[in-house]
Amino acid sequence: MTEQKKYGPAGGVLASGDGGQAVRADGVVDGVRRARRGVGRAGPGRQPQRAPLRKHPVFGSRTRTLLAFVLPSAVLLLLINLYPVAYAFVQSLKDGSLIAPGHFVGLHNYASVLTDPRFWGAARFTLVFTLVGVFGSWLAGLGLALLLRTRVPARGAFKVLLLLPWVVPVVVSATSWNWLVATPQSPIPTLLRHLGFGDVLFLASPLLAQVTVCVFKVWISFPFMMMMMSSALASVDASVYEAAKVDGAGPWQTFRLITMPMISRTTFVSWILMTIFCVNDFPTVYLLTGGGPVGSTRTLVVLAYQTVFQEFQTGTGVAIAFLMTFVLVAISVVLYRQIRKVNIE
Amino acid sequence: MSVLGTSSTGAPHAADGAAASTRKARSAEPGQRGRWWRFAVLLVIALVVLIPILAVVGLSFRPALGSGANDSFTVENYITVFQQTDVLTWLRNSLLVTLVTAVVAVAVAAPAGYVLSRSRSRLVSGYSMLLFVMQSLPVVTAVIPLFILFAKLGLVDRLVGVMIIYVAGALSVATWMMAAYYDSIPIALEEAAWLDGASLFGGFLRIVLRNSLPGVLSTAIFSFLVAWNDYLIAVVFLRSSWNYTLPIGLETFFQQNATNWGLVMAVAVVMMAPPIILFAFLNKYFSVGGVGGALAGR
């Protein structure tokens, strides 16, 4: 497995770095590659002999072509993604505003952020928001993916309809949710009043606002999870289920012992992606509640935005964003390495 | 390894189901009732989930308070919105920005994804890691430095400016999606082309890319959604009302005419129609499932 993986499907022919070694590959790798091409040892397998002959001129231009392939995206990454991060770090060490560059103040911004109770409040809600967002949308998405895998009338229509919350722009759905729940005269509070629940003010009480924002996030995100899980479920060989049925496994047993292990890798990847999406999510919270009431639904991103664009404290705002970025990148690098280790084929 | 375009199996399955239902009508298997139960459950879920979207559509056809019309259905809101506001300009801006973003994102991600899919050098896995880290950076951090940079370059309040940011924003996932699709194309095809004297670029263009239409469409749809649904970048970078895209345009309705929900919802319908139409027609090409494989595979 490791041997195959190392030389990959490309067999190193394309790999600029270790291309030469792959061509001089030992017998095992050569055999694997022949087997993959479906060319036996006695067959018309002249490629391995011919490749080295053309190696020098071809590899030179190949490496150049590959570099040219990556160049546009590398330039964009450097300019639009990496440069701002570096710049933001410098900004976070200064006391500037949006227009004035400001002076160096060392780690003062970080100190004031870390001693600010608003920061810790936002950090706590970000954590809750992310946990609910990831696992809530995963459970809903997985459940629906399982339902949609069975034979159901109008399955194709359901698949499209259930994607809509993810497809519709957040600006639109936030507008609609606001109309549905924001004021006491809105439809859902009115309905609840008629049902005898009294006045339920979804966006006015801190706790209920937090719940509403989390539900809103799950509503937006579950279709993404549904798609991820559907494709993972589709890759599970149907004959495995038939074998399990023959062996007398119940539905729960089948799910726990067969389905879950088979989709564990995609599940893990989807959790990681959704964690990133949730922590970085600005519009979902901002458009629904603006971080209120009394800051109860302020996530770190919203706090950073408000600090910069409403309080005009660029240094402090960027410091918040940078602390968050630092934690998130650290987590995502660890998790990224983890995904590569989890290799259930 | 990766399963891209799995939803394309939807059509045969549906036909399958139709055939099965006629068969089952005669044999009356126990599964028959379960099918309709599941249908009922899905129907209820779909209805509840779609309430906010149905509300938008419904309200957009309701007459405004105090207007002469007392029908329960009117297109007056749409007429007002199109004739008296800049919605058409915003719609044009949004479409322009989004389409350019989708095309450019595919053009940039397609070759990069090819390298990611076919090469296993250390440099490439480093690049893949970089993509992952970039994807996890919050846009808010980047906004201020980008604003200052773009101000120097004269790109603030210009549609080109936001296009560049959208392409960069969609790039990581777009590259993974392309790589995931290439993974499903056997390398033997290219090797045959190389033996026939094709260059690396020629093989990529004529063999791989030509067979990657679902991957390309998938990536284009994703990039389209990134650009179409964005709010933060547009609100920071677009300043003049003739440069607004629809999300920012929608905001102005809240400031000007406090809560004329009919008008707001009419604009909202204009805004959600393109992605919904896109999905209605191209849904079978769209799949994010491959991203998992592309991420984990290297």
UniProtKB/TrEMBL annotation, chain A:
Query: Is Iron found in the keyword set?
Result: no
Keywords assigned: Cell membrane, Membrane, Transmembrane, Transmembrane helix, Transport
Give an example GO cellular component term for this record. Answer: plasma membrane
Q: Does the keyword tRNA processing apply?
A: no
Q: Which PROSITE patterns match?
A: ABC_TM1 (PS50928)
A GO biological process held by the record: transmembrane transport
Q: What is the similarity comment for this entry?
A: Belongs to the binding-protein-dependent transport system permease family.
| Its membrane topology | Multi-pass membrane protein
Q: Which Pfam families is this protein grouped with?
A: BPD_transp_1
Instruction: State the organism named in the record.
Output: Luteimicrobium xylanilyticum
Origin: domain of life: Bacteria
Q: What is this protein called?
A: Putative ABC transporter permease protein
Compartmental location: Cell membrane
Q: What is its main location?
A: membrane
Residue span, ABC transmembrane type-1 domain:
123-335
Transmembrane annotation, as ranges: 66-90, 125-148, 160-180, 200-220, 268-288, 317-336
From TrEMBL, chain B:
Q: Where is the composition biased (Low complexity)?
A: 11-20
**Compositionally biased region (Polar residues):** 1-10
For this chain, the family text in UniProt reads: Belongs to the binding-protein-dependent transport system permease family.
GO CC list? plasma membrane
| Source species of the chain | Luteimicrobium xylanilyticum
| Gene Ontology biological process terms from the UniProt entry | transmembrane transport
- Give the location in the cell: Cell membrane
Any idea which UniProt keywords this protein has? Cell membrane, Membrane, Transmembrane, Transmembrane helix, Transport
In what way does this protein cross or attach to the membrane?
A: Multi-pass membrane protein
Enumerate the spans annotated as ABC transmembrane type-1 domain: 91-282
Signal peptide as annotated in the record: none
Q: Which residues cross the membrane?
A: 36-61, 95-117, 129-153, 159-180, 192-209, 215-238, 259-282
The region called Disordered is annotated at: 1-27
Tell me the InterPro entries matching this sequence. Answer: BP-dep_ABC_trans_perm (IPR050901), MetI-like (IPR000515), MetI-like_sf (IPR035906)
Know the name of this protein? ABC transporter permease protein ORF2
Query: Taking the first listed entry, what is the main subcellular location of this protein, grouped into a coarse class?
Result: membrane
